[in-house]
Amino acid sequence: MMGQVSMALSVIHNVVPCVQRERVYHGSYDTSHRHHGAAETMANVVLESELDLEALNKTLDGMDAAELVSWGAETFGESLVMSTSFGIQSAVMLHLVTQVMPNIPVIWVDTGYLPVETYRFAEELTQRLGLNLKVYQSPMSPARMEALHGRLWDQDNVEALNRYDYIRKVEPMQRALKDLGARAWLAGLRANQTSHRQTLGRIAQQNDIYKLHPILSWHSRDVYKYLTTFDLPYHPLFDQGYVTVGDWHSSRPMTDDDGDERATRFKGLKQECGLHLHLPQTQGEADSLNSSSL
């Protein structure tokens, strides 16, 4: 097994630029089954003091994507998790990371409003890559949310979208990170996706969690090369003109009039859903955020 992993990583280093059954969590669960070894001890030592992110980013900038994942695994041990949206190009990060950490907890926030194609794509990748998938959902059902707040995505204002994102995405993600004892989080953000992501480093801090961005400097051609090299699939909606996909009501195919791919999300009202910035701690804080801060 180790030989196969080493071979896979050697291929990845040449490509990238310089199943457990899922469980759905509406509440907390017992994490005592997770093993605690030398890696976790090392992580505790590292995290007892705050990391010098500026200096560390200078070092990490010299690593390729696979090397950064390996560094994260060695540094944070079992307190390292990753997230996925099962979006257009999600197979890249899922494959890249699981070559290094086959059993890493993979957090998927299921809003209850994802396209049918996303659920099928998630099942395909979970089976193919043997993902240790942790599915989290809001404790408020879609029907109850709509009864109490209306169709928040149809109200054409940022405050309503922020409320939607907090209920369906941010709160479940906060709970997932807490349940899993996460101290660091691997995310597949790329700098050319949004203005906020252009400001990120290879490692950043979001609330009390460290964020690692292995493919931050990648462009679409790098993603395409990785997918084709390892025969990995795009999301099915890519063939229908989607370049990014989230909930069915807030995603659409890209047109010639769109300035960038994120214009196809949230009716152009904002670029971020809230998961990859400062996570609001309360609903009131979520309501106060504007489009540039999410």
Automatic annotation (TrEMBL):
A GO CC term attached to the entry: cytoplasm
Listed Gene3D superfamilies: HUPs
A GO term, aspect molecular function: phosphoadenylyl-sulfate reductase (thioredoxin) activity
Residue ranges of domain Phosphoadenosine phosphosulphate reductase in the record: 80-253
Pathway: Sulfur metabolism; hydrogen sulfide biosynthesis; sulfite from sulfate: step 3/3
Highest taxon in the source lineage: Bacteria
Family of the protein in this entry: Belongs to the PAPS reductase family. CysH subfamily.
Function: Catalyzes the formation of sulfite from phosphoadenosine 5'-phosphosulfate (PAPS) using thioredoxin as an electron donor.
Entries under PANTHER family matching the protein: PHOSPHOADENOSINE PHOSPHOSULFATE REDUCTASE
Protein name: Phosphoadenosine 5'-phosphosulfate reductase
